[in-house]
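As the next step, I wrote out a protein sequence along with its fold in token form, included below for the reader:
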Amino acid sequence: MKELVIPTIGPYQQSPLLNLPDPMTEAEFRRISSYMEKQVGIKMPETKKLMIQSRLTSRLKALGLSTFSEYIDYVFSSDRNQNEEITTMIDVLTTNLTRFFREKQHFNVMVKTVLPSLVHEGTLSPHIWSAGCSSGEEPYTISMVMQEYMRKRPGKLTDYHILATDISTRVLDKARTAVYPMETVEALSMDIKKRYFLKSRADVDPPVVRVNAQTRQKVTFKRLNFMDRMFDVPMQNIIFCRNVLIYFDKETQRSVLLKLVNKLDEGGFLFLGHSETIFGMDLPVETIAPTVFRKV
């Protein structure tokens, strides 16, 4: 195995700041939180104020600013750097939590019910969308599940295509590298680890692994905002949108779900997180398993 060149992407480590800015005022907090809710769809109540203040302090230092007022003037100005810093702000304030084979029951349903149904209907090269893919663990897990299905059931499927989207350019960059701390795969079976991961020979502390090339090459990453009026993606057979809607209010959840379902082929499948529900939303889907739905 070739020695990996490990990118300088890893856990956030904030250096001590000697000159901390004055605390964020209520008006400054409302300016940022209202923007995040309107443009990104994520509600940020008063309880998130300290989190916002803490995460944006590093941006003040990077830009050479001393107050949150100066930062707000900068990020919402008409300066040509505005869009770049707005994107960075969204990246910094977006929470991303995921892991390989998260909510494993969904992948059991996929193997036992969803894929056989698609094969029966003549879909031999399914298109799968990981919407809100974070740092890539979900789409790479889907790619592994597809390879396992094809390996154990030769001739059933001919190919598969995975689109992975997120609003955060930071986590998309991390996802493309496909490099993760070794501890993130410790709970996986040895068979899965040997078949789909490479262990770096570089002297890296803590040690890391990388998803293998065959698994990586089946995933295409793209930035997408759920608040966009239309989703610029092709029609899909399967959509995973798990543990994303919990950050939105009910009206926004329904709007996003309608746009997702509109990107599903008839008979396509939608996976939501186990803490999410479509109750009372009147969507053209039927339940086939807990938080798994089929378009009708």
Strands lie at 127-131, 161-166, 179-181, 197-199, 208-211, 219-223, 236-241, 264-272, 285-289, 292-295. The mean pLDDT is 87.
